[in-house]
Amino acid sequence: MYIARLKDRGICSLSGNDTLSFLQGIVTNDVNALSDKKPCYSVLLSPQGKFLHDFFLIQDKKRILIDCNLDRYEDLKKRLLIYKLRSDVEIKLVEDLVVFAIFSETLNQPISFDNGITYTDPRNSGLGQRLILSRSETIDSTFPNKNFHIVSDKNYQMHRIKLGISEGPVEIEPGKSFPLEFGLQFLNAISFTKGCYVGQEVTTRMHARKLVKRIPAVIKFDPNIEVKIKETVFFNEKKIGVVLSVFGNYALILILISVANNLQSGQVIKVGREEAIIQIPDWLTLS
């Protein structure tokens, strides 16, 4: 079992009488399903249906915590304030809290801790759990079990990439990407039954009319090969996609769904001039 401090993540809080109704009207998922034991993964879109932010919502007594990308917190806060108007909602960064990922190459039973807030990653069971912990808590007191191994956040990112799961803003580019092209509807980020939210019309139309043209996939390559972000991916000498991110000898790519329908995991493709093995994520439903 591995534990990694996710240094790119931060926690902000929303509190006030209108918090739930405020979020319900702007984010892609149904926040009415939130409870102390059930977190929610969701996305904030532009009115044009383009991705802006993805985050986890966690009920913590009378407030909602948002596990978000720390570097983009100010942008997230600014956009939330645009929609806040006169709603009774207070938004602030909780600087005392940090985020850990608890994961393994094989699925394990969820683990509970005496300290902090623990929840299972709602996107995919293979991602394991997340732990929100106060900076004042020590690693030894929180993780006394010697079976835990503390690793770099890069180890976690490679684990995530191997599962074919994208995150913003690293792989999902804000202001330019559509969430359905990264399979977020299969990662419990989007409700098609909750009603209106910002960007809902475009998202629903893309889903109903099957307008999605690309999907994420994973490639594995020789460790001696240098693969770069934005490098072109080929199959049968035809361009089929592009590299989004690289960790170790794995890369997350975005490819044409028309080609993916004719590919099988384990087939050889090319990234640049070098060969690589493609893996289609098993959580994706191709159409």
Description:
The chain starts with a strand and ends in an 8-residue tail after the last strand. The protein is globular and about 55 Å long. By secondary structure, the chain is of the alpha+beta class. A hairpin with a 2-residue loop joins strand 12 and strand 13. 16% of the residues lie in helices and 33% in strands. The chain has helices spanning 19-24, 73-84, 139-142, 153-162, 200-208, 257-260, and strands spanning 2-5, 9-15, 40-45, 51-60, 63-69, 90-93, 97-103, 117-120, 129-134, 149-151, 214-220, 232-235, 238-247, 250-256, 268-271, 274-279. It has six helices and 16 strands. The longest helix has 12 residues, at 73-84. It folds into two domains: 2-162, Probable tRNA modification gtpase trme, domain 1 (Gyrase A, domain 2), CATH 3.30.1360; 213-287, Beta Barrel (Elongation Factor Tu (Ef-tu), domain 3), CATH 2.40.30.110. Strands 11-14-13-12-15-16 form a six-stranded antiparallel β-barrel. Strands 8-9-7-1-10 form a five-stranded mixed beta sheet, covered by helices on one side. 39% of the residues are buried.
Which key features would you list for this structure?
single chain, alpha+beta, Gyrase A, domain 2, Elongation Factor Tu (Ef-tu), domain 3, six-stranded antiparallel β-barrel, five-stranded mixed beta sheet, 16 strands
**Overall geometry:** globular
Number of strands: 16
Order of helices and strands: EEHEEEHEEEEHEHHEEEEHEE
Question: What's the CATH class label of the largest domain?
Answer: Alpha Beta
Number of domains: 2
- Could you report the average pLDDT, rounded to the nearest whole number? 93
Number of helices: 6
> Biggest sheet, strands in spatial order?
11-14-13-12-15-16
Secondary-structure-based class equals: alpha+beta
Q: State the CATH architecture of the largest domain.
A: 2-Layer Sandwich
